[in-house]
Amino acid sequence: MDTLRGMEPGRLSAQIRALAEAVSEIDGGSRTTLRELVSRQNPIDVARILCDLERDEITLVFDLLDQAGRSVVLTEAPPREQALLLMHVGDQGAELIASLEPDDAADVLEAVEAPEREALLRDLEADDAREIRELREYAPDTAGGLMTPEVVCVAPGATQAQIFESVRTNAGEAETINVIYVTEAENDLVGVISIREVILADPAAVARDYMTTEVIQAGPEEDQEEVIRMMETYHLSALPVVDRTGRLLGTITSDDALSALEEEASQDVMALAGAGSATPTEQTVVERVRARIPWLMLTLFGGIAAGWVIRGLAVFYGKGHAVEATAQLLPLVAGLAGNVGMQSSAVMLRGFATGEIHRSRVRRVVGEEILVGILVGVLCGVVSGLMALTLVEEADLHRFLAVALSVALAATVAGTMGAVLPSMCERAGIDPAIAAGPFITTLNDVLGFTIYMSVCFGLFGLMT
Predict the structure, then answer these.
(1) Is 263 contained in some domain?
(2) Structural contact between residues 252 and 143, judged by C-beta atoms closer than 8 angstroms
(3) What is the pLDDT of residue 397?
(4) Cα distance from N-terminal residue to C-terminal residue, the chain
C-alpha cells in the first residue's frame, strides 16, 4: 500500500490518498473513518485505485459503498476486478447487474466465465436478461456492442406535452434524454428531434412538424471506427442504431463513443509498437510476453535477412574478407533492442496519456516492463543464437553464446530505457511522447551495438 501514497495532484485527489492510507491501516484503525472517506469520493476515482489494492482491500472498499456507488465502480473497474467483485457479492450479483445500463451490464458480464455468466442471467428478470443477451450477440467493437436499447421514443403525432411526459416517464432508464426518436409501428425510425427543439416548439405543433427526417444512423454490425467517424463528422451527441428494415434497436451516446475512441487509439498505438493488447497494464507479465514475442520474431527474421544482405553485397563487390562474420549480426541486435524499447515506451506513453498510470503506479509498471524485457530478451536471445548458427559460416558454441547473451542484455536494457525515460520526462513536466522517442531510439542503437561488440570482443574474442 505504500505505493498509493503521494499520488499526483490533479490526477487523484488528496482525499483519495487519505483513502488509500486508511485502507492500509484498517487493521489498527476505525472503519468509520474509512467509510466517511469512501462516501466523499467520486466512485469513478475509487474504481481507478482498485488495481493498486490487494484483493481483500478491494472488497473492503466495495462493501463500504452505497448501491449507486457500487454500480459505478463495477462499471468502471478493470475486468479482473469486475470478476472479483461479482464473485465477492455472491447472490447479490444479479441485483447489482440489474442496476446497470444494459450495455454496461453486457460488458461487465464479459469479465466472468460462461457458467457464472449464465447463472447471473438466470437470476435476472426475464426482460432484463433478454436485453443483455441480445446485446451480447454483437461483437463489443461494433455499433450493436456499443449501443444501449433504452431510448426515448414518441409517435409522429405526439404533442409537446406528450413528448415531455414521455421524457419524464423514461428518464430514469434512458441513458440520454437530449435526443428523442420518432418511431412508427414496429418501432420503425422516421425522425429525430432534440430536447431543445421540443422546448422551443409551438405547443400546438406535433413531432412530425419539426423532426429531422434525414437521420444519420448505423447498422448493428458497423465497426466502432466508423461509428466514431460518423459522430465526429456530423457532430452527433447520439447515434441511432437500426436493423436492415429500419427498426430502431438502440442508440450510441457520446460517452460510449469516447470510450471507443480511446480503445481504438490504444489499439493503434499498441499495434504500431507490436505490444499486443490495448490495455497492457491490466495484463500479467506472462501475458505481455506472449503478446509481444510474435512481433519480435518478425524483427529477428528481418535482422537475419539484413545480415545476409550485408554479407552478399560484400561478396559481390569482392570484399567478403573485410566483413567479419559476426558483424553481420549487428542489424539483428539493433532491430530487436529497438523494438523491445518501442514496446515498453508505447505502454508507458499510453498509460500517461489516458491517466491509467498515475504517479503511484509508475514504479510498479516500470518494474513489470523491466521483467518483460528480461523474459523477452532471454527467449529472443536463445532463438537468435540458434539462427545465427545458420548464418555464420564458422558456427561454434562461442558464437551462439555471444549472440544469445548480447541479445538478452540488449533487450533487457532497451526495455528498461523504454519504461524509465518516459517516466522521467513525465516527472520533469516534459511531454514524454516528444522527448522520450528520440532518446530511446538513439540510446538503444548505441547501447545495443556497445553490448554486442563488448560481448564479442571482451568475452569471446570473436572479432580479431
Answers:
(1) no
(2) yes
(3) 78
(4) 54
